[in-house]
Amino acid sequence: MAGPEGDRLIRVDMTTQTVSLDPFPEEWKIFGGRGLSAKILSAECDPQCDPLGPGNVLVMAPGVLSGTSAPTSGRISIGGKSPLTGGIKEANAGGNPAQHLMKLGFRAVIVKGQPANPEKRYGLKISAEAVEVVEADDYKGLWNYACCEKLLADAPKSASAISIGPAGEMRLRGASVACTDHEKDRHPARHAARGGLGAVMGSKGLKWVLIDPGKARLRVPADAKAMNARNKERAKEYKAGPMHVSKGTAAVIPVANVLNTLPYKNRTQGQCPDVDTLDGANIIEAFETRGGGMHGCHRGCIVRCSAIVNDAEGNYKTSGFEFETLTLLGANCAIASWDDVADLDRLCDEVGLDTIETGAAIAVLMDSGGMEWGDVEGVKKLLREISEETDLAKMIGNGAVETGKKRGHKRVPHGKGQAIPAWDPRSLKSTGVTYASGSMGADHTAGLIVNPAMPPEELARASQEIQLVNAVGDSSGFCCFFSATLDDIRRYYTMLYGEEVTREQIANQGWEILQDEWKFNERAGFTAADDVLSDCLVEEGIGPADAKFDVDAETIAAVKVRFPIRDELFLTRATG
């Protein structure tokens, strides 16, 4: 298999503010995104390091297919040791940075060390001509939108940015990493949100990354004719298929409510009385009077699941407004209006916080009597106070578990210290097995299975298979909503490199990624005793069936013992 000639790794030492460029290892050729991040962290990061200390390693890795003509393949993975879970973490995002890095032949940015002066801020400029660290003290404390507006004002229109808000600079454990989208104003609305990797970036003193691809062209595959033909076929299949999500993930709200996985008031109920006013259909209807609409988060996206939301006067409010945000910041906090939740989404994007972790933390605050249920103005005030570094705002910014500790409140739904996403493990037990067994903590992007009727004997295998498929998908650059199968991905790799990638190779890659991540966590001190979910999810039932997460430890442990490969595995679609 021919190597990716000329591909390189960018290595950044933030202790000395220096950069070096290394050849990309041949043996990692079909590893990108999450898989490449796991390889780098396994080789170069001490699993027992302080996540916010100089020993942690921050990885920014585009998918293998990013920068090619493959549709909807522009995802980037941000990786490191999570300050939220204490284990390995990958969070991925759309936007244009992945495409731009790969067009320039950069397979990953690896950031180590930290400045001697924690008050200093730096930026990283990347172009075909040079890669350099520059001083960026004048960006200190800026919210993401103001930061990117300032940064991109004098940059070429082709440029994109990665940035953190004040939450990342403050090293809050719920902090996200923002990427700019490809709309004219290049909004920093695409977030690698989970696990607190924005805090890791902040601990490095790195406020932003500016990527200018200049006139760099798309990556040319070995078999361009075959890839172009497959792109057309695959786009047609997707648009005609059942996985087409052109109305956005917010349209799932009514279905989630029926399935008792629209959590209400800190998951004390699985259905929300405000389902009609939170329904994503309202967002679509508002396009007629407010403007806005559906768009793709990066060039080449055919899914177009992202909603651009305007206010009542027709002014831009937010984008990338999704189901998880409506659920955790809306229903879970008893906030009834989708319009109010859109305001909260924008505030989280501005200060740089994960909407899932933040919504869960606020629900714990409300559940413990620290704020009235549904107090949207109080929540807005709290999020604005992130920049003021008030104790209450910092508590929320550090996540749900920290909020529970500070409030003396034990009812905190989480897995490995990370808040449970919208999809409830009591209703969807196979997804709960993934939350418990997965290396990332409770994370629906590790592999979501929406099947409330799955028999207990199938849970472990189903979880293992979807985790494997999603690991490969998160390495490819494909968005999970493009619904690529293992067969799709290996065929694209074959066309890219000109030599066949077999079914066995692609399945083994997925298992290898999971093994790398589990072994990292073992070296960090995790044991089988950590593969559990909160007591409240085990002891408290929801819905008419009083469903609880009652899966035994043996079933969860079985996920880490490889099952024989089935032919059906290669037709399984990545989910999230």
Structure description:
The chain is of the alpha+beta class and about 575 residues long. The strands form four sheets. Strands 2-1-6-3-4-5 form a six-stranded mixed sheet. The longest helix has 22 residues, at about 505-525. Helices cover about 35% and strands about 15% of the residues.
Blueprint of the fold:
Elements: E1 8-13, E2 18-23, H1 33-44, E3 58-62, E4 76-81, E5 88-93, H2 97-103, E6 106-112, E7 122-127, E8 131-135, H3 144-152, E9 160-163, H4 166-169, E10 177-179, E11 190-192, H5 197-203, E12 206-212, H6 224-240, H7 253-258, H8 275-278, H9 281-290, E13 293-295, E14 306-310, E15 316-319, H10 323-330, H11 338-351, H12 355-367, H13 376-384, H14 391-397, H15 400-407, E16 414-415, E17 418-419, H16 429-437, H17 459-476, H18 486-497, H19 503-524, H20 535-539, H21 553-558
Parallel strand pairs: 1-6, 7-12
Antiparallel strand pairs: 1-2, 3-4, 3-6, 4-5, 7-8, 9-10, 9-12, 10-11, 13-14, 14-15, 16-17
